[in-house]
Amino acid sequence: MIVSTYQPFFCPFPAFFYKAHLSGLMVILDDVQFPLRTTWITRNRFKNDQGTLWITIPVWKKGMGLQRINQVRICYEGNWREKHLASLKTSYANAPYFGDHIDVINEMFSRKFERLVDLNLMVLQYLKKNLGIDTPLILQSDLGISAKGNELLLETCRKTRASAYLAQAATKKHIESSMFAYAGIQLRFFRPPSPVYPQLWGDFIHDLSAFDLLFNCGPKSHEILCGSSHKMTNQVQI
Q1: Residue 74's closest CA among 34, 37, 128, 32?
Q2: Is the per-residue pLDDT at 232 higher than 50?
Q3: Which residues of 90-103 are buried (b: 16+ CB within 10 A; e: fewer)?
């Protein structure tokens, strides 16, 4: 079985789900340190008539010290939920399939999720289902793994009885291939596609949230993302 990992990004770009598509199982790294820098775990890009539309979920950081991702709580001060919801409705009102997904958009900004990871996981499962990806997602915390770096990836493979680990080609320089070879686990690398599709508001912008793909292409989204030509040309084994 091929296993891959990803942190629980907020409304991630299509390649997140393409990686899941190539995997037999994806482990969501919810029990690693929450980044101190700007992170895709709290924000992502959509599109409006001005170009890029950033949607950011504010979280509590001050005085919290180093937090694990699954400890981070959403800050509900201010009216950011109303603003984000209004921005998305205005930006995508004319998208052919926006109405098909309005219920989950409303839920994102009306339901009070205490932890950021709970919001992100709800969105991940929704996007995965609507993109036609049937790969199971499980949490690192449910596996009881607390290692770091390459050892975290290896232990994830051991706990899930994986025969291969899948990663983006760009991360190859950070992975100790000898450790995986010694453990009898094959490394596979892939180059994520960045599909072009009909999009509102002028010039095409690559790698927006996968919602942009769904809003514009609906049932065709799976084929646009996971066409057979991608699968044949983007995997590299070592």
Answers
A1: 34
A2: no
A3: ebbeebebbeebee
Cα 228 to chain centroid, rounded: 21
Q: How far is 75 from 115, CA to CA, in rounded Å? A: 9
Task: Please give the C-alpha separations between residue 50 and each of 38, 182, 205, in angstroms, as whole numbers.
Answer: 22, 52, 12
- Whole-angstrom distance, CA of residue 74 vs CA of residue 72: 7
Nearest-angstrom CA–CA distance, 194 and 211: 14
pLDDT > 70? residue 75:
yes
Residue 27's CB: how many other CB atoms inside 10 A?
Answer: 25
Element holding 18 (H helix, E strand): helix 14-21
Structure-derived torsion over alpha carbons of residues 140, 10, 15, 19, reported in degrees to the nearest 10: 10
pLDDT tens track for 157-199: 999 999 999 999 999 999 999 999 999 999 999 999 999 999 9
Retrieve residue 6's tokens: 């990803």
Distance CA 80, CA 86 (A): 10
- H/E segment holding residue 79: none
Torsion, Cα of 39, 42, 46, 51 (10° steps):
-60
